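Weekly structure sync, notes
Attendees: PL (lead), two postdocs, one rotation student
Agenda item 3: pending single-chain targets
PL asked that the sequence for the first pending target be pasted directly into the notes so everyone works from the same version. It is reproduced below exactly as submitted, 255 residues in total.
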Amino acid sequence: MKIGKKLVNFLMGMILLVIIWQIVIWVGDYPEALLPSPLSVGNAIIALIIEGVLFEHLKVSLGRFAAGYFSAVIRTILLGMVLGRLPLLWQFIDPIVQVLRPVSPVAWSPFIVLWFGIGNMPAIVIIFIASFFPVLLTTVAGVNKIDRSYLKIAENLEIKKLPLMYKFIFPAAFPSIVSGLRLAVGTAWIFLVAGEMVGAQSGLGFLIVDARNTLNLDYVLAGIIFIGVSGFILDRLIGLFEGWVGKHWGMEKPA
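Predicted structure, written out during the meeting:
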């Protein structure tokens, strides 16, 4: 029932967006060459699906995203849990992180291309960088928020460091970690597309650039729509994962 209500709300929101889009075209008297109508973009989406072009590029983008995102998440959660347990070391590393964090991953693209060449790796590295900082900071913050009295009890019970990490610290810090995972999904997906626009020969970002170069703006908007929908689905998948883990550990959110 709850899922059905969310689906109805989503569809109503999309319908409202299309109506506003069409009204803007009518009021501004924009020609198709400047701002394609929803009907034109809908036809472009259908054409991309029938030709198989859309799913081909989407598959490539999702593959790059998965490689960069999960490689960053696994390493960063482990690193964040260790740094969260070493506050003195974190005092020196935190300023470095705060200086590097605001730098756009795309700004590193000249070096990334030089170091990793062209192809899939530049986009994967950009996704890795985009995912790294949100997950690291939320993981360290989550570990720091754990009640120290519980840690002392664990030490008195002589629980070894490794079991302590995955049996206690990770579950306790998970609510904070998952907020970083959701933030990293959006950030990484944005920069994946930006990375594909720079030097890739496939993917949704390349699809948009290629359509722009041929002045097919209806295909450009079709690509933008699928980027937004894909990002929305990825965010919801993280939410489902959060709910599954919360249920497994008895941390379900109240309905």
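Discussion points:
- Residues 1-30 form one domain.
- The chain has a mean pLDDT of 81.
Action: rotation student to compare against the earlier draft before next sync.
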